[in-house]
Amino acid sequence: MPFQANIDNLINVLSELYFPLSVISLTETKLKIDKKEILNINIPDYNFLSQPSLCNTGGVGVFIKNGISYNNRQDLSSVKEGYESLWIIEIQNDLGHNTICGIICRHPHGHLD
Question: How far is CA 86 from CA 41, 59, 75, 82, 109, in A?
């Protein structure tokens, strides 16, 4: 089931937390490159980035809390027949080193090499 069918459940879970999550990574979004963008995937106070899939499975996405400074590294992100990857590099951290986040979804039929 595509993640947009469960977006309300995710919003409910987030509303019950005592603190906001900075980054929420998703795999198996089932967002496909050649399909029209889905409209009901917004979460209040978050930005959404995704790497759609070439097929009906896979796909990755990330919600980043508003106010967090980040750099979307499209030069590192990729989509291939067996996997998708999305890299958000340099989430700014005033207290130390910047954080590097990556989301990779390898399809069950995808090769490890």
Answer: 17, 9, 10, 14, 19
For 4-51, write each residue's pLDDT tens digit.
Answer: 677 888 888 888 999 888 898 888 887 777 776 665 678 889 998 888
Sequence-ordered alpha helix ranges (H) in the chain: 7-15
Q: How far is CA 101 from the centre of its chain?
A: 10
Cα–Cα distance list, 83 to 16, 23, 77, 79 (Å): 33, 21, 11, 6
Indicate if the alpha-carbon torsion angle 32, 3, 47, 73 is positive or negative: negative
Give the pair of three-digit tokens for residue 16.
């019950």
Count how many Cα atoms sit within 13 Å of the Cα of residue 44 in the half-sphere of its side chain: 5
Q: What is the pTM of this model?
A: 0.79
Q: At which residue do the structure tokens 């499209």 appear?
A: 74
The tens digit of pLDDT for each residue in 52-93 reads 777 777 788 889 999 988 888 777 777 777 777 778 766 777
